[in-house]
Design a protein that fits this description.
Order of helices and strands: EHHEEEHEHH
Shape: globular
Radius of gyration: 18 Å
Helix content: 25-40%
Number of helices: 5
Number of strands: 5
Structural class: alpha+beta
Strand order of the largest sheet: 1-2-3-4-5
């Protein structure tokens, strides 16, 4: 059976649906305890401060939407090498029962439109090494290239705070 779906930009009324998808993703990635975002944080940081943007895929039509089936949350970065912005895909998730129905491809197509409209030189994302179905999709369907020479690095809140110890204090 063919699934009818549509994609649109998220708005503040979608926060609960977005958080449900984020929690589902965290469970899929075996880290449900790591998903600590709250509705208030999403409202503030995505819709007020606009640090990130979200595309949502819904069951049904725009006139008669159903439940949220998938999402792509992204933000813009900048490449000093190209002198252009880039689009970083933070999370892409499609509910298990909605997979292999074109939603992931459609979300990437929409991301491609956004990247072109903004003049982005790159569209980057990370994928867990054990997530072989997604890696196969990215490499075979999207023709994405693994960045094997790069290693991701991260500081979390305490690490960011510890950076203050490195500050140069003027005399």
């Amino acid at each position: 059976m063919t699934l009818t779906f549509h994609i649109r930009s998220a708005n503040v009324d979608d926060v609960d649906a977005m958080l449900k998808l984020v929690h589902d993703l965290a469970t899929y990635e075996n880290e449900p305890e790591s998903a600590r975002a709250t509705p208030a944080l999403f409202r503030e940081n995505i819709f007020e401060k606009k640090y990130a943007h979200t595309l949502l895929a819904f069951d049904g039509t725009p006139e008669a939407p159903g439940i949220a089936l998938g999402m792509a949350l992204y933000f813009f970065n900048f490449s000093t090498w190209t002198g252009k912005p880039g689009l970083f895909l933070e999370d892409l998730y499609v509910s298990p029962d909605a997979r292999n129905k074109g939603i992931g491809k459609a979300l990437f197509a929409e991301l491609g439109k956004v990247a072109q409209e903004k003049g982005c030189a790159r569209l980057d994302w990370s994928v867990l090494k054990w997530n072989t179905p997604s890696i196969a999709f990215y490499e075979k369907k999207l023709e994405a290239k693994a960045m094997e020479e790069w290693m991701g690095m991260r500081l979390e809140e305490q690490g960011i705070e510890n950076l203050q110890k490195l500050a140069v204090h003027a005399a």
